[in-house]
Design a protein that fits this description.
Layout (H helix, E strand, L loop, with lengths): L1 H8 L15 H30 L9 E2 L2 E7 L7 E6 L2 H11 L17 E11 L5 E9 L4 E9 L11 E10 L5 E9 L1
Parallel strand pairs: 6-8
Antiparallel strand pairs: 1-5, 2-7, 3-4, 4-7, 5-6
């Protein structure tokens, strides 16, 4: 009888031909339960770990190039000071266009822009003493925390034959609207 009580405390004996060790039933159940918990946790947590591994870190995130279209570009403008502008309202746009075209007769109508979807980025290179100078927006990138506008300034070589007239450099574009801050980065280009 003592042996029967003892067998009730333990899991069944090992099959014939194997070790005759007996394991307590509590350890056996704990092992099954523990294995089940580990499998469930693996299925729940593994997908999120794999997703995190595939996601770039802040330092790995790449900027996305934004398409843009040129509204106007040239060397004669009523805006004679060097400035970079971000225009997000129709009122600001009409005021800028009026000043920009103030040296033209007749003045051209303000180009249409949908300010619910787009914004204006403008570079004015200031007034130069001769021809041969230029500004051009070459790329717009949207990063995690800002919009970057890359442009080049062209300066003629000292011995270049250039027109002897004052010029006012500009490039005006429209691009997808964003609430991110905008920075302008220049690269000088010597011909």
């Amino acid at each position: 009888m003592n042996g029967a009580k003892q067998n009730a405390k333990y899991h069944t004996e090992a099959p014939e031909g194997t070790s005759a060790k007996k394991y307590p039933r509590a350890f056996f159940l704990l092992g099954i339960f523990g294995t089940f918990v580990i499998i469930v946790i693996s299925f729940v947590l593994l997908p999120s770990c794999v997703e995190e591994l595939g996601r770039p870190t802040d330092s790995q995130e790449e900027d996305v190039s934004l398409p843009f279209s040129t509204i106007s570009k040239g060397t004669f403008s009523g805006c004679t000071t060097k400035q970079n502008l971000v225009i997000k309202t129709q009122e600001q746009w009409v005021k800028l266009w009026k000043k920009h075209t103030s040296t033209r007769m007749p003045q051209t109508p303000t180009p249409k822009v949908d300010f619910t979807k787009q914004m204006i980025l403008a570079i004015f290179g200031g007034q130069k003493p001769t021809g041969g100078f230029a500004v051009e927006i070459v790329k717009v990138e949207k990063g995690r925390d800002k919009i970057k506008v890359f442009f080049k300034e062209t300066v003629p070589p000292p011995d270049a034959l250039v027109s002897q007239v004052f010029t006012q450099l500009y490039h005006i574009i429209k691009v997808e609207k964003s609430d991110l801050p905008v920075t302008f980065e220049v690269k000088e280009d010597r011909r």
